[in-house]
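Before the break, one more example. Copy the sequence into your notebook; we will annotate it together after we see the structure.
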Amino acid sequence: MHGTDGEIARRYKEHTGRKYTYILSGIVLLLVMTIISISVGPVDIPPLEVIQTLTGHSVSVRWDNIIWNIRLPQVLTAIVAGAGLSIAGVVMQSILRNPLGSPFTLGISNAAAFGAAFSVMVLGTGATHSQVGDAVTISNPYTTTAVAFVFALLVTVIILAFSRIRRNTPEVMILVGVAMGSLFTAGTMFLQYFADDVQLASMVFWTFGDASRASWEELALITAIVVASIIYFTLNRWKYNAIDAGDETAKGLGVNVEQVRLRGMMCASLVTAIIVSFLGVIGFVGLICPHMARRMIGDDHRFLITGSLIIGALLLLCADTAARVMMEPYQLPVAVLTSFLGAPTFIYLILGGRRI
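Here is what the structure looks like once it is written out:
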């Protein structure tokens, strides 16, 4: 009996050890990719000089300006936004018990985009410009984020209401999300119809998700919300594991399922709203990355939350880097690449690949 117990303990250590190895490898790869991403662009900077600049050993004033004022904010924004969207997706999939759940497929991103557009164009919280790369400058980020959050929360409440209908299926919830996304996309188009030429061009460009728009101040605000959500989700990781086993099982273990579900969706909606209000709509990151993490480290949220945010950060950083260099000197919005990657994955999941 003791030998059997020892064998089980050994296998468990090996099992968890592999998960830690995946996570640590992801962190190392993310650090390496960060240096590479900062070094490439219209002006290539040697990786060694990037490291020297970041560690306080200035090589040249030119490198300092490019790295600290242009490259580093964009790279960090891609990392934080990717982590935020991915962790929002993994929590939505868990608490709704829906493998197709994500801020994009459930229409939350579109609702937040409409809220941000409404705030910018109607409430006057943003200044519009015609220069490429500076289409919309958010002059009141708190109001814009609050309005975006209200509309994202509205869709969240609708999704939760449908989730309580008897015999509902994941497909029904996705259809509800598609309907909500279409509704708020139409609302955004309605605003654009009454805009002048400069506003229209600005709003169309703004809806393309792009990590290059955030300044250091906006990055700090996004990071604060994402970090707070990560802490909250991590503290509730055992409850998400219980919900994965079924609502009745979770209730038997003392979990207030309705409360956990509502608070989790509200927190995920806030993360989505803050990212969309500054960067635009970046689709499919919250759908793809949780599934990639599950295939490598399993469904245990003790590891899945960390693994998902690392993969999300890495995926969006790689996509942003590719978008920056593939059409030099112009920069392709990162949302274009994530949509090209996400659409086939979404079709695969629908057509039978949902068993994870």
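Residues 2-39 form the longest helix (38 residues). The beta strands are 126-128, 136-138. Try to locate both features in your own notes.
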